[in-house]
Amino acid sequence: MNRAATPADPPPARHAQAITQGLELLQRHVPLRKRLLHAGDALYRSGQDFEHLYVLNSGLVKLVRLAADGREQVVALQFRGDWLGLDGIAREHYGCDAVALDTGEAWAVRYDDLLHACARTPELLKMLHEAMSREIGRDRESLMSVCTLSADARVADFLRWWAESLGDRGLRTDQITLRMTRAEIGNYLGLTLESVSRALSKLAKHAVISFCEKGRRDVRIPDVAALGAFVQRSLAPEPLVLQ
User: Fold this and answer.
1) Mean pLDDT over residues 108-128, rounded?
2) What pLDDT band is residue 70 in, cutting at 50, 70 and 90?
3) Which of 74, 78, 114, 222 would be a feasible disulfide site paired with 82, CB 3.0-4.6 Å?
4) Better pLDDT: 235 or 89
5) Rounded to two decimals, what is the model's pTM?
6) Within the chain, what is the greatest distance between any pair of CA atoms?
7) Are residues 117 and 218 in the same domain?
8) Nearest to 110 by CA among 179, 29, 181
9) Domain boundary residue among 120, 143, 166?
10) Strand order in the sheet with 61-66
11) pLDDT (0 to 100) of residue 3
């Protein structure tokens, strides 16, 4: 049995515990269909009729929206404990493709089953509302990043967020494997591939990150706080130089 979180628990431990408890609550009260995912598998496609919400038990999934001119736009990354398909509730069809970036497991929950369970179990309803609230918050943070941060700071903030998301799930934060290509990261952040590559090189030059091998997919992060500090420095006003 999981012990209750105490004030002495560090925030990442509390987050990881809350995710585990939420998944256990879902298993106890709602019929689930579990699906193993491999990199490249589509959990659902844009335009498909909405019937299920999905919760990630493990792995990493990207959400991709197709623009009117046919361009693909990466709009979100989802980690363990995240809910997928919430955009389908209002429209009755999914608005994005959900594509696995590595091996993992997703749980399919019929929406009508979930509503019935929420009526009986207030904790489930609270969990669903929290998932919706987090998605709204992430959308706002993403918009703020694009509107206010330089290219270098956007990449640094993205790596900080990725590492902290892993930490919230009880995973190591000192090294991450970029499951996205530079082009996909640029697509997500509103940058060109070249801008992402230059930003990563600059972060490495400043010893904020380092690369583990020539493939440059595995990134070492000695101190996650240093990424946040890099972002904050980019927001500081330039000193006034008197002529």
Assistant:
1) 96
2) confident
3) 78
4) 89
5) 0.86
6) 71
7) no
8) 29
9) 143
10) 42-44, 97-100, 61-66, 72-78
11) 38
Residue 237 has pLDDT above 60, yes or no: no
Identity of residue 137: G
Report which of 106, 107, 130 is spatially closest to residue 118, judged by C-alpha positions. Answer: 130
CA angle at 149 for the pair 148 and 152, rounded to the nearest 5°: 170
Q: Give which of 30, 23, 24, 56 is closest to 113, Cα–Cα.
A: 30
Average pLDDT, the chain: 89
**Can you tell me the mean pLDDT for 52-70?**
92
Question: Count of alpha carbons within 13 Å of 172, Cβ hemisphere only?
Answer: 9
Domain with 211, as residue range(s), is 149-235
Alpha carbon 32 to its chain centroid, in Å, reads 22
DSSP 8-state symbol, 70? S
Same-domain status, 30 and 100:
yes
> Both 30 and 128 in a single domain?
yes
Report the CATH number at residue 105: 2.60.120.10
Q: Is residue 3 part of a domain?
A: no
Please list the residues that pair with 66 across neighbouring strands.
72
